Amino acid sequence: MRNPFRRRDATDLSPPAKFGAFMLLVAWSMVVLFPIYWLFVTSFKTPYQVDKGPFYVPFVDFTPTLDAWEYILVELGNDTLRPYLNTVIVGLASTTIALAMGSLTAYALVRFVYRPKVALIGAFILSVVVALAVAAFGGPLAVGVAGGVALFVIAAQTVGRRARWTLANSDIAFWLISQRILPPIAVAIPMYVLFQQVGLLDSIVALIIVYVATNLPIVVWLMREYFASLPRELEESAAVDGASAFRIVRSIVLPISVPGLVATFLIVLIFAWNEFLIALVLTSADAQTMPLQVAAQNATRGPQWWAMSVLILIMIAPVIVMALALERYITKGLLVGALKG
Amino acid sequence: MAAVGAWRSEGAARWLFIWPTVLFVLFLSLFPLIASVVISFSRLSFHQGGVDLVFVGFNNYEQELFGLERSHFLGVLNPPGPIGWLVLGLTIALTAIAWTRAVRRGRVGAFGLALRLIGGILLIAWVWILVQALTSEGGRPGALIVTFIFVFVGIALQYTLGLGLALLASQRVPGRRFFRVTFLIPLTITPVGVGYMFLMLTDTSKGPLEPIWVALGLRDFTWVTDPWLARAAVIIGDTWAWTPFVFIVLLAAIEGLDHEIHEAALTDGASHWQSFRHIIFPAILPVSTTIVLIRLIEGFKIVDMPNILLGGGPGTATQSLTLQAWIDWNTLNLGRSAAVAYLLLILVTVVATVYISFVRRRATEYA
After folding, report:
1. For residue B314, cis peptide bond before it (omega within 30 degrees of 0)
2. What are the boundaries of each domain within chain B?
């Protein structure tokens, strides 16, 4: 058998160094996997076994039971299935939309020059505030919107024309990421009111909308770095050959940014998958998601560890499967191959 | 972003790529943003048949900074000890030297100098609060300082671990696909779940580490009663959960590099350390600053780990700003909750701006 730590070529690590790296990776795997193992064995315990102190190995120091699994999957049945499907739908839909919109924005922020005028932005915000104020004080929404639009057009044509003070791409990017600073707790009640007004409370559409908005800044910032690190020569020569920006993005930029896209997809999917507070406020029954189910296991009798373990395990299973399937795309060679080909 | 190009004439794509995102985010952020400012200036009043918002001006903010809530928010502040005075004196001296040097060099305009002066005064005020809470007798840090500790210690650990693991996992070691997926797992658990999981693991009588506690003679020892051990536990849990985030982004960045350059360097006899120090690290520095910024912003919102693990205790030792807002929220003190959230917003905006204009700009220029 060949030594798995052998040196593959001149640029590879020496065998002892490679073995050291391997051992470090194994060590961190233990740190990561031990808690997961503990969840796994806890899910096969009875409440009595959990309470009696630590038991480590099923069949050796305790008799495993399927009680908790049966409780979650059979007894609760649809009450587990519904939030599960909601989580899957909300997660995939919001991630796909956010990734599509956010990547284009990130690309635009890297390759195009924007000089938005401060005065115009001020006029726009003022108009929106006026429209909102009209609506808040009981005026008809149509009047508010019309007034706001009129105000904005007038301001844009008068003040906006003369204004000199402009912002740059980095300001747009910072504005986007700054939307994540305010803790969800502060926006939860206004969000509730907002979605109540449009009749979308307790619907997965509301969750998808909110998660797209909250995850867009993350997508833009992560993808912006990847796009900025790409060599521009290919795009420039394509532009010289007359390809449109859409064409360049589709056939040049996207194929060579697959590692970044995959990593960003996984991160944003996980964020949407696991979000708790907004889901707690915006849903009550039909649109509830899995994190709420996990939290609900902390009942008045204390945390139901066995049921909670089952829920966490079935929650992370599909994400891990997806990571397994997508991991191969986060690998070297893609970029180099595209440039040579 | 040095890469901003000169393609000014791209027509439709210019606007189509950016407007949907900007409008979407603006639409969803504007109303909640305004509404929560209004709430932070008011108090809920309950009466028969409903709830009213009563305007109270800056009252909620005043309470946090100067009034009843100050011991929660800033901490219990007493005259600092000798080390505290020393640290404060050093800070003042260094700030004064830095500012006068900026004046004498004359490269910065009047506006920049004024900004630096304000920044320096803020820094001194911050150190003054820190030394009063941490080096004095009977003083203790409030949510503001505790949050800072969580964020900065946590990010330092997460970045170091994440970078190290990403570098190791990009080597051609056996089983690297297994490692790459495994390392992602902590991130996939919902934060509430991570909190409960750590509660289970750290239980000194029923948790899996019980034999270790017993062997160390710590059977009846409860780490939850010591403020610094409790804070350390929160940071450990947070690091376990968030290191994968740094790991996966840096891994993708390292794998996205053009490997011909550093392979050529290695063939020419550079050591692996040299190739990391001079080729890989500069190349991933911009991504690194972005990931630290995102973790900075997300980290300041830490709430689940201290809440579930310790309920913010012992006392208020692990109460973060968001946890304080959350407790106020649960007791229907919405005005105070929103005021804490807004103070957090101001604070993080200042920290993020300073970070971007000093660290990030320099890092991206360097790269």
Report:
1. yes
2. 79-138, 140-367
What are the two backbone dihedrals, phi and then psi, of residue A203, each rounded to the nearest 5 degrees?
Answer: -130, 150
Nearest CB to B24 within list A29, A216, A224: A216
Structure-model confidence comparison of residues B50 and A112, the more confident one:
A112
Tokens of A137: 């004080």
Nearest CA in chain B to A262: B252
Q: What share of chain A has pLDDT > 70, as a percent?
A: 95
Nearest to A221 among B22, B294, B338 (CB): B294
What ranges do the domains of chain A cover? 66-115+169-340, 117-166
Distance CA B115, CA B110 (A): 9
Q: What is the rounded CA–CA span in Å between residue A14 and residue A7?
A: 6
Question: Which chain A residues touch B7 with a CB distance below 8 Å?
Answer: 111-113, 239, 245
CATH superfamily of A66-115+169-340: MetI-like (1.10.3720.10)
pLDDT above 60: residue A339: no
Q: Do A183 and B197 touch (CB under 8 A)?
A: no
User: For B230-248, what is the mean pLDDT?
Assistant: 93
Per-residue confidence band for A74, with pLDDT thresholds at 50, 70 and 90: confident
* Residue A80 C-alpha, separation from nearest chain B C-alpha, in angstroms: 16
- Report CA A79 to chain centroid distance, whole Å: 25
Q: Phi and psi dihedrals of B218, rounded to 5?
A: -115, 30
Token digits of residue A126: 């003022």
CA B84 – CA B274 distance, rounded (Å): 40
Write down the pLDDT at residue A332. Answer: 57
Q: Which residue of B has its CA nearest to A315?
A: B189
CA dihedral B350, B353, B355, B361 (to 10 degrees): -170
- For B200, the closest of A42, A273, A295 (CB atoms) is A42
Cβ of A4 within 8 Å of Cβ of B174? The answer is yes
Cβ–Cβ < 8 Å for A257, A223? yes
Yes or no: domain B140-367 corresponds to CATH 1.10.287.370:
no
DSSP string, A1-64: ---TT---STTSPPHHHHHHHHHHHHHHHHHHHHHHHHHHHHTTS-HHHHHT----SBTTTB--
How many residue contacts between A and B have a Cβ separation below 8 Å? 351
Structure tokens at A203: 């619907």
CB contact (8 A) between residue A38 and residue B35: no
pLDDT value for B92: 94
Phi/psi-derived region of residue B312, left when phi > 0, alpha when psi is between -120 and 50, beta in every other case? left
- What is the bridge-based pairing of β-strands B140-141 and B75-76? antiparallel
Give the pLDDT confidence score for residue A209 in this predicted structure: 95
pLDDT digits (tens, 9 = 90+) for B197-214: 998 888 877 788 877 777
- The reply to whether residue B36 touches residue A187, judged by beta carbons under 8 angstroms, is yes
B188: nearest CB among A22, A169, A270: A270
Strand partners, B43: B54
What pTM, to 2 d.p., does this model score? 0.88
pLDDT per residue over A295-321, tens digit each? Answer: 888 877 788 889 999 999 999 999 999
pLDDT at B38 over 80: yes
Structure tokens at A90: 């909300």
